[in-house]
Amino acid sequence: MHLSTILLTTLSVLTSSFELIPAVFTPFTEDGSIDYPKIEPYSTFLKEQQNISTVFISGTNGESLSLSLEERKRLTDEWAQTSSNVIVMVSSESIVDSVELSSYVKTVSETNSNIISVAAMSSSFFKPSTAQDLVDYLKPMAEAAAPLPFRYYHIPSMTGVSIDMIEFQDLVEDQIDTFVGIKYTDTDLFTLRKLILNKGEGVEHFWGKDEILITGIATGATSAVGSTYNFMGRTGYDIVNAFLTADLPSAQSQQDKIVNVVSSWGNLGGIPAQKAIMQMVGMDLGRGVRTPNRALTDEEYDDLEEKLKEVGFFD
Ligand SMILES: *[C@@H]1O[C@H](CO)[C@@H](O)[C@H](O)[C@H]1NC(C)=O
């Protein structure tokens, strides 16, 4: 086969399958309860303005560990009604709640095909100490959600759990039938590459670091889950498409847009800052976050908007 034919064939496969999945925020009203009616317009905004077709709900950005079980059930209902592909993060610090949410999501999925999978991260207060302990911890959630596909959400920066992922993947593939992959939110690319080389059939790795999306694609992730795709979905796809058509300078300059935006919020806190950005781009989710996160003050909001103007975010 001619080289360009091989290249084109490979490209069309890659372009059509690499997907950007926003980890969605939870909208709150002034009194701190969840603003459920915002979910429908939010879902439409993602589809129409950001070219998004799959959402990751109830994760870090959704402040899931600060939500009640009832709230997370209701969020599952609301997103499943408005969005065509929904991945639900089901874990919490109590295995009882985690299993109950898993089985709730499975029940919803029996009458609503928009739910495509569940995901769970490790507990973080009491931590599993071996790869097998982590598999044992995840198993009841995966079983309660089965036959829904199950993903492990690896985010050591938040959980403090840094178990050997290679060993973990070997064990989880053997012991959890519905295991389909890892959402990999870490910068250790060597480990990610080894995970990809060692993986069984049907297992995929989702990349979780927006500000270095290029490296995730280059290392072999098949999709990416992140916060900035909520408002920079098109920039994200510009990076993906430039990279896959071997236009590295363009991929890098598109990547710099995300680098500049992520840098602009400094230590304001990613979630409150990005909720402010959602408001700036016309998708008002309220500025509220759940304590101990803290909403931006008006002054912080204005400063952030000014910094974003300086880096050309609104151009
Ligand atoms: C929109 O998303 C699809 C994947 O769902 C992607 O292949 C396409 O390149 C994106 N288009 C733009 C203009 O970002």
UniProtKB/TrEMBL annotation:
Lyase in keyword set: yes
Enzyme Commission number(s) from the entry: 4.1.3.3
Gene Ontology cellular component terms for the protein in this record: cytoplasm
Keywords, alphabetical: Carbohydrate metabolism, Cytoplasm, Lyase, Signal
Top class in the EC scheme: lyase
Residues annotated as catalytic: 153 (proton donor/acceptor), 183 (schiff-base intermediate with substrate)
Compartment list: Cytoplasm
Pathway connected to this protein: Amino-sugar metabolism; N-acetylneuraminate degradation
Catalytic activity field: aceneuramate = aldehydo-N-acetyl-D-mannosamine + pyruvate
Domain of life: Eukaryota
Pfam families in the cross-refs: DHDPS
Signal sequence annotation: 1-17
Binding residue positions for pyruvate: 225
InterPro entries given in the database record: Aldolase_TIM (IPR013785), DapA-like (IPR002220)
A GO MF term: N-acetylneuraminate lyase activity
PANTHER family the UniProt entry points to: DIHYDRODIPICOLINATE SYNTHASE (PTHR12128), N-ACETYLNEURAMINATE LYASE (PTHR12128:SF21)
Protein family per UniProt: Belongs to the DapA family. NanA subfamily.
Record-given protein name: N-acetylneuraminate lyase
